Amino acid sequence: MEKAEIGLVGLGTMGSNLALNIAEKGHRIAVWNRTGARTSEFVAQAGPLADRIVPCATLEELMAAIEPPRPVILMVPAGRPVDEQLAVLGPLAGKGDILIDAGNANFHDTQRRTREAEGADYAFVGMGVSGGEEGARHGPSIMVGGDPASWHRIEKVILDIAAKYEGEPCAAWLGPDGAGHFVKTIHNGIEYADMQMIAETYGIMRDGLGMGAHEIGKVFEGWNRGRLNSYLIEITARVLATDDPQTGTPVVDLILDKAGQKGTGRWSAIEAQMLGVPATAIEAAVAARSLSAMKEEREAAARIYAPPAPQAVATAAADIVAELELALLAGKIAAYAQGFAVMQAASVEHGWNLPMATIARIWRAGCIIRSQFLGSIAAAFEAGGEIANLMVAPAFVEMMNQAHPALRISVGRAALWGLPVPALSSALAYFDGYRQARGTANLIQGQRDFFGAHGFERIDRSGPQHGPWA
Length: 470
Ligand code: 6PG
Known about the structure:
eight-stranded mixed beta sheet, Single alpha-helices involved in coiled-coils or other helix-helix interfaces, about 10% strand
């Protein structure tokens, strides 16, 4: 029987969709699932694509069905299940075989698994896949980390199944070991910040301007035709426009205001902290999700603290909404600048040599944060020269100069209205901190030296100094 080009383990929704995508692009794929019944069901539902799918009852069968060197994609929940799968699959893999973790792994796990694979016979690839179920089925954005030889073996399949932006595949090899999963983690961190800032503008419209879900949905629909055009703005408009069939109420008004999180946003914030890179909008977004989960505490506090007295608003609602659009743009620039700064620092720290322009390019389609805006980021990195921070790249300086006054006004207004805008306000503080030539850390240094003789540098003398504290 003709051998399969690739194998896949784990036929959950993501795994099934990825397998169908691979088969649809003309590649023969061998599949295995922990429960055999799911494998049969999957093949039965694959329609004409079933001809290119080789169902396997055992992992031995799976390995025997693939053309060596054999690549096998693991699409199992992140964490322990990946290690368990590797423990059984590893011994069946021979020299040159490639085991690919396509889940949302913590890159530290990917680095460890890469080291463990070196002691075994196979190669390990950590592959970040973004785009949700639809993306997996019709074209995700794919961020690959591993050794170049493994990449060359899987490159054709991966480029074929990836989303295309103006014909260019949204998939790339980004560097060794954990590089792909790290980039996917930061993608998610940015996704958190993006979503949070969108939710904050929604909050100002809902609670500050008293607008209804449909009306706000129309605003996002309009924004999606402008510079904020992106998948997240598009789906926000759609979520806000959708009514609950039973009650006729906008669904969003029926959804409990407690956000879930699986860990990637938190990992982004942790890694940023570990690298000493400020990623305040991402951190604020993670914290906001945690605060959202404290529903009962918030309800109790709401009974203690009344909201601030309503302020007379001189500005027309339409103008406030127009300011919010620009505020969101400014916040977004700061948040993306933070995400890319974290990746630049990690690249140096781990010796990955991450290709920043390529990362922006493969995020233009397929992934959750896909947008036009990423095209501008790619262009900024492609323009050459060292970019210390996206906010100082010429195209973004122009955008920021147009947008930051509106961010300032929107954050100020939200504060007076008692509406929390943690991501937008921290984005503004980051921008203001970054563009301030003389900050206030001189006082911090004075305090540190006062209580702990930690020393400081002086502006008028070189070498470590101490203050003449009494
Ligand atoms: C993607 C998404 C995907 C997933 C996240 C959501 O890029 O396709 O980011 O990875 O939806 O796991 O994460 P939370 O559950 O933490 O919001």
